[in-house]
Every structure is written in structure tokens, then in C-alpha cells.
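Sequence in, structure out. First:
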Amino acid sequence: MRYAVAVLGGLAPAVIGLSLALVVAPARASNYESCQNQCDTVWGTNGFQNGSCMSQCQNNSGHGASQSYGAIAYGPTSGRWGESYHWGTKANATRAALKSCASNDCRVVTWFDRECGALATDRAKGAYGYDSGATVRQAEASALRYCKSSGGKACKVLAHSCSF
């Protein structure tokens, strides 16, 4: 939500909240794909920008009722990333992360079931690392370690997500 306020030039939080409510409300009566398309229309296809909207779509459409898969996709050339969480199947989590990443070079780098995943990058060196773990802290620490072992000097966590 903080990012949306910055992108929209400081519009009042009430206006942004109303926008989210209008986008997310159809998910209760419709399927996930319809809600996801509305999120894409309002917030764009970048996973960070529409992450809250997407999570509402997933929660309101019953995704993840019996399982809880998530995934993180990354495009090393474009620098784009996408995430998904609370999906009932690994395949659906993979598709959602790739759609959220929205670049031809994106591929799923990690997926997780009832745990967390993280992606760390050093774009200047072209290095990145990823992993999953029982907690965000564990996943991030491991992703940073793998990023550094692949040649990164100034690795930073780019994305993390949990699916319980």
C-alpha cells in the first residue's frame, strides 16, 4: 500500500482503499482469473505493485484451501520478478508467479509449500540467489548466501513471500 501511495502522487489513502475495494470485490462473485485481470488493469503487471490486490484475489476465490504453494519468478536480463502464494497446486503457483513477473526471460527460481521463499540479487554483477526456508529470515539468509556464492558483492533481497 505504501508503494501505491507513492506511485499515485500522494492521493488520500481513502481513495486508494476504495480503488482496491472496487478491484477486489468481484473476486467474491467471480473466479480468480477475472480478479487477476482487474488487478493487472489497475496496478500493472509488476508483482510488487499489485501484490496486495493479487493476494485478495487468491484469498477471496478460495485458492490454497487444502494446500499452500507459492513461487518466485525472476528474469535476470529484465530484472523483473513476480511472486505467488496460497495456491492449491504447485502448477498454479508457478503460473501465477510467471504472470506476475511478466517478461519473456522470467522463470520460476524457487517454489515452496507451507514455508517462505526469497530472491536476492546483485544486478551490477549479474548475480542472484534464491531459496526457501521455514521463515522469511531463513529464506532471505540462504538467498543472500547463494547470491554471494554466485559472484555477487552487494547482494540485496529483491523479493520474499510466504505461503502457510
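Second:
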Amino acid sequence: MDLVKYVQEQYVEKNDVPDFKAGDTITVYYKIKEGNKERIQFFRGVVLQRRGSGATETFTIRKISGNVGVERIFPINMPTLDKIEINKRGKVRRARIFYQRGRTGKAARIKEGRR
């Protein structure tokens, strides 16, 4: 076995995350440290993609905030990640739905899937 994979499997802490994929609407709760205070902030949006594997896996979320699209990339094993909540399951045919970036309003809707 590769030495890097061995170290990642043995020593990198793995967060317990639910099973989600592109098209799902999720809420990510993560800790923010301001000075000596710590608080939890959430980011709710549609998952555009999941990429990577193991300790380096990441996922991209997109939300609309004041008519501006905001995307954020979260590592799965981020230590400040508190929890991930699945709000809605989406039915899409692709693993990476970057075509959503060009859509607004009703055109940006995603059908709800049964999983």
C-alpha cells in the first residue's frame, strides 16, 4: 500500500457525514472563531459537486445571496465542520452541475428525487 494513503487512513480524523450528492440542498454548520469567542454559522445551498477521495475529499455548495451567487468549497474532513444536514434530495443526471451557475429564478429549480 502507498505510504501516503496508509498515513491518511490511520491518522487523519474522519468526520461522520451523511450520504449526499450533486443536486441535494444541504445545510453545513461550521465553527467560526472571532477573537476568543466561538460561534456556529451555517451555509445552506445546493451541492454542485463532490470531488476527491479519502482525506482530501471536498464538496462545493452554491447559494443565492441578494441576487449574487455565492459558492463555497468545504473539505469533508475540515476540523471546524460541526454537522451537515440534508434539507432536500435533488434529482439530477450529472455528478457536476455547473450549468446551474447560468440559471436564475424558475430555470434554476431542481426536481425533488426519492432516495
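Remark: The mean pLDDT is 91.
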